[in-house]
Every structure is written in C-alpha cells, then in structure tokens.
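Pipeline run #58 for the internal structure catalog. This entry was flagged by the ingest filter as a single-chain record with no existing model, so it goes straight to prediction. Upstream metadata was stripped on purpose; only the residue string is passed forward. Reviewer on rotation: M.T. Logging verbosity set to normal.
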Amino acid sequence: MSGVGAVILAAGLSTRMGRPKPMLVWRGRTLLSRAVDAALAGGFEPVAAVINDSPEPAAELAREFPHVHAVVNPDAARGIGTSIRRGIAALQVVDPNIAASAILLADQPLITGATLSELLLHYRTAGKLVIASDFGGAIGPPLIVSGALFEKLLALPDDRGAAAIWKQNPDWVGHFSCPDAAADVDTQEDFEKLGG
C-alpha cells in the first residue's frame, strides 16, 4: 500500500489558550513545526497543514516546509469538521489515488515521527478502516482513516470530528496504544505541565 497522506489540524481559534497554539514554542520549535516534522518523519506523503488565515503559520510553513501544503481555513470558527473537509480535499487534489490519510493535531507535542511510524505500520497490518490512538480508555488522534471513508469525511458537519463516522460502526476501528496522545495543549496550564 502506498499514498498514505496526513492532515494536520492547526486552524483552531485557541480560545482556551488565549493565543494561537500552533505558534507556541516548545523545546525550541513551534508546535506546528513539531507536528509537521513528526508527520514527515513518520512516512506520510503528501502532508497538508490546515491553518487559519493569520500570517504567521503560513509564513513558517513556507519557510521551513515548502513541500507541505498549507491549506487556509477561513471557516475554522465553525468547527473542526470544516478543517477535516478542507484537508482531505487538498490531499485528493495532490494525489487523486491517495489510499488513506492520518489525521493529526498540532497540539500533541509528545507525538513523534517514531510514534507515527508505528501507527502507520499498525494500519498497514490491522485490516481496519480506521486505526485510532487509545489513551486511557479514550480513542482519537493521531489516527489513520482509509480512503474508503473519505466521502464520509468530506460530508462531516462543521462542528463534528471524524469520530462521528465510526461511533456508529465501532467494528471499523482498530486501536493503537498511545499514552502520549493524552498530552494535548488546550490551556496555559496544560502547556506549563509539559514544560512550556
């Protein structure tokens, strides 16, 4: 199997943080740069980073990752579904035969390329339409979704994430143990707990 891309969700309004999360600097790199690094090191191609319409993320992507597709989502305030739809659509333009896509969050700084390589290997061998990270009984990103479900992703309501698709079909989902997925940055307190 080839053509497993990645959509990095980095367009949120960061209302609980009070400043743009993708541009927070953690261990010398912005969270956005770290997420792109992880996706590329994990073996995903092509990569689309869905960002909001502020200039800083676009400038950083153009400077550091000219081969990554920056997808501006001016509708981010309407919900995560708008970003997933734009990201998947962008991947399909780049590679109409793309087989699957990871969905990654820019605010999970402990997720590394090595983690994502293991996730991809698990997807290739598990025979499931979805492989989602399992952390403390919850499942979610980082995850990989088969291209067979792209039409459903492209039809997501504005305010619904990808989990809306498989909650009704749990047998579609394989689990990937990933405790580091629990460390996401929503608030300043979360960031400080990670040493930010």
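catalog note: Residues 4-193 form a domain with the Spore Coat Polysaccharide Biosynthesis Protein SpsA; Chain A fold (CATH 3.90.550.10).
catalog note: The first helix runs from residue 31 to 41.
status: ready for reviewer M.T.
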